[in-house]
């Protein structure tokens, strides 16, 4: 039986909400749905809102009961902002995020490059804006919950998929046990290690490389502008690369 964590994750900058799980015993038998979306990260939540914008109802299944854990995406580009505007959350991101467009690269202590992203007065959004992924997901979740075309089910994990000529049948596990769901279309937005891709024996094509990163969010007041800092082979950390970004709420992200 699927048992997602139901204690709030601790964080130095984000107050987690634990959402109530959706339980099959509290709902009537399931009809054939036009669309089921598996995975309520940024992609699944945005897909649900985009479908609703075109009048298409969907069921959105999210395995966990909270938004994402830890430090993940922090930089959103202008193009992402345009998509977020379409689904109605760009204003909250702009209001709470930190815009920037300059970056500095240092090699062994010397600045070797200054990036200046182009920006025109007619651009609707700045080139980049920094905001922790938890806040973006929260805004998307709240938009989904306010939309009657979206049935967001927390604590619902897809465990099996069977494809038929005109529909797919899903096994979904919940904190009170499994149920089945039928859908004309299934959107797999269950992340980089997609269980659905594995269940369907699909391969993600492309190149990959090995690297080890340490990522830390640190609360510290630094008298520096909101600009990206990249240190290559610094004398205080030889052989390594260190990236620094200012995030909202007095946090600096160190990669
Ligand atoms: C440590 C780290 C640092 C990162 N830093 C950056 C960065 O600086 N900038 C940047 O742009 N990106 C960054 N990323 C990448 C960014 O977080 C991802 O690109 C983004 O989260 C992808 O969104 P998604 O919706 O595709 O998948 P995810 O965010 O992974 O969401 C998938 C969702 O599906 C759910 N799920 C999984 N399996 C099932 C299932 N079987 N049934 C139902 N639900 C399921 C999961 O619980 C999750 O909520 C980072 C990622 C990590 C891990």
Task: Explain the overall architecture.
The strands form three sheets. A six-stranded mixed beta sheet has the order 8-2-1-11-10-9. A six-stranded mixed beta sheet has the order 6-5-13-14-15-12, with no helix packed on it. The mean pLDDT is 96. The longest helix is centred in the middle third of the chain and has 13 residues. A hairpin with a 3-residue loop joins strand 14 and strand 15. The protein is built from five helices and 15 strands. The radius of gyration is 21 Å and the shape is elongated. It is of the alpha/beta class and 255 residues long. It folds into two domains: 106 residues, FAD/NAD(P)-binding domain (3-Layer(bba) Sandwich), CATH 3.50.50.60; 100 residues, D-Amino Acid Oxidase, Chain A, domain 2 (2-Layer Sandwich), CATH 3.30.9. Helix 1 runs parallel beside helix 4. Bound molecules: flavin-adenine dinucleotide.
